[in-house]
Amino acid sequence: MSTTATTSEHLVRMANDIGAFFEVMPDQHQAAKDVATHIKKFWEPRMQRSFLEYLKAHGDQELKPVVREAVREIRPS
Amino acid sequence: MDTHPLHEEIDYGTPARESEQTVTLTIDGVQVTVAHGTSVMRAAVDAGTQIPKLCATDSLEPFGSCRLCLVEIEGRRGFPASCTTPAENGMVVRTQSSKLADLRRGVMELYISDHPLDCLTCAANGDCELQDMAGTVGLREVRYGYEGLNHLKDQADLSNPYFAYDPSKCIVCNRCVRACEETQGTFALTISGRGFASRVSPSESQPFLESECVSCGACVNACPTATLMEKSIIDAGQPDHSVITTCAYCGVGCGFKADMKGNEVVRMTPWKDGKANEGHACVKGRFAWGYTTHKDRILTPMIRKNITDPWQEVSWDTAINYAAGEFHRLQQTYGKDSVGGITSSRCTNEETYLVQKLIRAAFGNNNVDTCARVCHSPTGYGLGQTYGTSAGTQTFKSVEKSDVILVIGANPTDAHPVFGSRMKKRLREGAKLIVVDPRQIDLVKSAHIRADYHLQLRPGTNVAMVSALAHVIVTEGLLNQSFINERCDLDSFKVWQEFVARPANSPEALEPVTGVPAQLVREAARLYATGGDAAIYYGLGVTEHAQGSTAVIGIANLAMATGNIGREGVGVNPLRGQNNVQGSCDMGSFPHEFPGYRHVSDDATRSLFEKDWGVSLRKEPGLRIPNMFESALDGTFKGLYCQGEDIVQSDPNTQHVIAAMEAMECIVVQDLFLNETAKYAHVFLPGSSFLEKEGTFTNAERRISRVRKVMPPKAGLADWEVTVALSNALGYPMQYNDPSEIMDEIARLTPTFAGVNFDKIERLGSVQWPCNDQTSEIGTPLMHIDRFVRGKGRFLPTQYVPTHEKVTPKYPLLLTTGRILSQYNVGAQTRRTENVKFHEEDRLDIHPHDAEERGIADGDWVGIASRAGETVLRARVTERMQPGVVYTTFHFPESGANVITTENSDWATNCPEYKVTAVQITKVKQTSEWQENYHRFNETQLRLLKEKVAAEVAAGR
Ligand code: SF4
Ligand code: SF4
Ligand code: SF4
Ligand code: FES
């Protein structure tokens, strides 16, 4: 049995784990910003890239709402 | 190499007393003023006189048994013992008179009549207080013959691997017994029998090795005779010089005197002036240094094209150039970001700093990480977010002032033994203790120690527990509102207060999650909040979880809410694992930050480094260790420079790590031994032990202490010199004459280190960062006194989120992992010492109920299967475990404990969740498939090492 989820699936899970910490904040707009900042501060660019590519290919329905909003901040405009 | 004389220390006879009040007295005509409570004996030393003594020593409370220290005091009858007599105002003391001389000679005569007279051939010759005292009192004859009853034929106990006990030389002074009680806190020794028959005896008259003794060596240190003696001294003789240095094992960072004979260490003696340990030590630092000269050490650089090839021994130049060539090739082929490195928490600050500099400046990326990733990275994140700095708040000594001690997910008596002893001392003095741990660790119940509360929670529920404790504090009105108003960010406080007050966070609501009765949680919270000065100590049982960072934040919240921060006796204290975990984090080992915890995206900081280093630096974070593995499997990460870490053994999900290793094209390992990682390496650069180089370590108190070279590097180069050579070969020049210049560079670039330099440490013994113009000369023993580093302390809500690692019918038990006293981390050092006598294999601890259900008896072989893999260990059935939870250590590679752990990790830092893995346990007859493979692979690699060819010799050079 393989235990290693593919890297991108793993990234989705990590993003949701980050979201789980911030989603209890009363200001959800700020929370989304915090999630975005966290990802930008701690994820190496190729992780950010494959995360965004995965979302492009598979959609963002697996993401928690707060992460979904955060993704808008992370996307290079 | 500077050699020193023996660093002889003055023995004041009795411990120093702290008191505002002083008393003034006259001793032999000299007036002297001392703190109230000081003994006459100690005052005499201040007055310039050493009173003869045998049963007294200044690390122990006086005992008054030998009667050698008698003095005359005007106006008092008889001859009081100076060690047990407190100095008083106006006392007039005489330490010499013919009557006193007679009495002392009489005492000595009695001792010597039951003592062998083999001084010339005794191992303690020249270092024996009995011998000294015989000289001091002028003993010339012994009138009682040796024909009478005596102990001269008593058998020696040689069972302990490191020290011998020869009762024929014992004078029953009780110093060893008191050292074991007062200094170590183990209570392993007693004086059995009475009068003439009295002898020192470990536990119930057992040999040392089988007794309760933990081999800390405190008794050996305290013994004034050759009765308790290091075997290394018996073998090698007395040292001729000594060098002060720092232990290279754990984050306590004990100071040691390396006692030397030429270039050979003959003993490590705990240093009395070492602030972290004040003369105490544990079995690892004190005795387990034999690995430094172990025959397995590799002393010649080696290279090979493929890991299936035999190693080729080459010169340093060849190895370094080969490595540099490979890194260049990889970067040209796969891009600049395809290589990276790992700094070592075992190496010095200077070495760590250089490795991250090499990666940022010579590789030109930020792919640098350190093994702190897998232990305390959540501490950095959690304390950074709440307090603004990534470090413990107190000195170790601060625990002496604590009224309540809360230990969460830490096992100090095993993992931080010298601090554990300090803590136990305070507990024996009456401080209250709350332990939050899934296991019944020693602190819960041991000699003269009982935890007031043991909250034995389910692994993985720390955050629920911390929130429940906070709930009680908030809803029962136990907040320290004035502290909060003055020192904390009030908006964040209100959010937190509302959050923890929710019924969902009550101990009652969370009882089904944690498994701990709500009432106990309530009582423990009340004790923490109202019991006086309360300190929190936590360890890897907090950080190595999917919610490790959240738990650290929760702990920081608790301390702020109750005002337990910013003075002696309180605080939040991470107990660091490896010796220089603190230092390696401080030195910029993380991919997202420069030295001093400054993010790489911060323009001002980056340009500071760019100017100083003369290169342009990247502003995006690099890969963390787990991300490196994943990128390797994705084919974008190809080369690794790994200094002094054994990621293959220490990182979770071994099979995943190995697949990543095999996917890389060039792995450069710098280490003392062919460790598990080196078995996958292409270049091996011999490392140097802490005895072979100059530098500094930073312990869990932020204390920076010197590591000193006592012998030349066995392979010719110290680790920092190797990094310099590699950087030069990569085309980024580095030039340092010695490590003090590296520290000067660190100080130049890092505000919290601005006042740190080797000369100052030499002068003061150690300093604690922050250390600069704004702090006192020794730096900052206590943090956050008037304000938090970030300004106002910041509260954050801590929502409990169950881990992805869930128990199921297939994997119904939770495995948690830990460490034991005598072995250290992956065991590469301690397994190569006599410490294997104390722990020769990793075992699986299982509760009798779970064992019985599976037909498992103590000592049976059991298979442990998780979603990640399967291994086999022998079982130990013990009630220390709660039902449903099993436990093991990971000191031996063949145990494969990390074959079972998964790559689940902390949400903020990717610190692996070592402490929770769902498993099934079954009784088995043979080792697992993984172990079979491991054995085969290991055999091959050892053969390839044996078959190594001296390439350059073969090539006719
Ligand atoms: S070595 Fe330490 S634990 Fe053992 S008897 Fe001596 S003082 Fe006690
Ligand atoms: S073993 Fe040493 S310290 Fe202990 S009672 Fe005998 S002489 Fe004193
Ligand atoms: S407590 Fe830690 S630093 Fe001190 S001697 Fe033991 S291992 Fe070394
Ligand atoms: S030293 Fe004072 S009685 Fe022994």
Explain the overall architecture.
Chain A is an all-alpha fold and 77 residues long. Chain A is 71% helix and 0% strand. Chain A has one domain (5-74). Chain A has 4 helices and no strands. In chain A, helix 1 crosses helix 3. Chain A is globular, with a radius of gyration of 12 Å. Chain A starts with 6 loop residues before the first helix and ends with a helix. The model of chain A is unreliable at 1-5 (pLDDT under 50). Chain B has 957 residues and is of the alpha/beta class. Chain B has an 8-stranded mixed β-sheet. In chain B, helix 10 packs parallel to helix 19, helix 13 (462-475) runs antiparallel to helix 16 and helix 16 packs across helix 17 (518-530). Chain B is globular, with a radius of gyration of 29 Å. The two termini of chain B are 32 Å apart. Mean pLDDT of chain B is 89; it is low at 953-957. The A-B interface holds A 1, 3-4, 7, 10, 13-14, 17-18, 20-21, 23-26, 38, 41-47, 50 and B 337, 366-367, 495, 498-499, 546, 549-550, 591-592, 599, 601, 620-624, 627, 630-631, 633-634, 636, 653, 655-656, 659, 797, 799, 801, 804, 867-869, 902-903, 905, 907-910. Bound molecules: iron/sulfur cluster (3 copies) and FE2/S2 (inorganic) cluster. FE2/S2 (inorganic) cluster binds next to loops of chain B.
Sum up the overall morphology of chain B in one term.
globular
Secondary-structure element series of chain A: HHHH
Q: Which molecules are bound besides the chains?
A: iron/sulfur cluster, FE2/S2 (inorganic) cluster
Q: Beta-strand percentage of chain B?
A: 15-25%
Would you report the number of β strands of chain B?
37
User: What is the number of helical segments of chain A per DSSP (H or I, 4+ residues)?
Assistant: 4
Largest sheet of chain A: none
The CATH architecture of one domain in chain B would be 3-Layer(aba) Sandwich
Roughly what is the average pLDDT of chain A, rounded to an integer? Answer: 85
Low-pLDDT residue intervals, each spanning 5 or more residues of chain A: 1-5
The largest sheet of chain B, given as strand count, sense and whether it forms a barrel, is: 8 strands, mixed
What are the segments of chain B in which pLDDT stays under 50 over at least 5 consecutive residues? 953-957
What distance lies between the first and last C-alpha atoms of chain B, to the nearest angstrom? 32 Å
Mean residue pLDDT of chain B: 89
Shape of chain A: globular
Give helix % range of chain B.
25-40%
Per DSSP, the total helix count of chain B is 31
Strand content of chain A: under 5%
If strands are numbered along the chain, what order do they take across the biggest sheet of chain B? 15-14-25-26-27-12-13-37
| Portion of residues within helices of chain A | over 70%
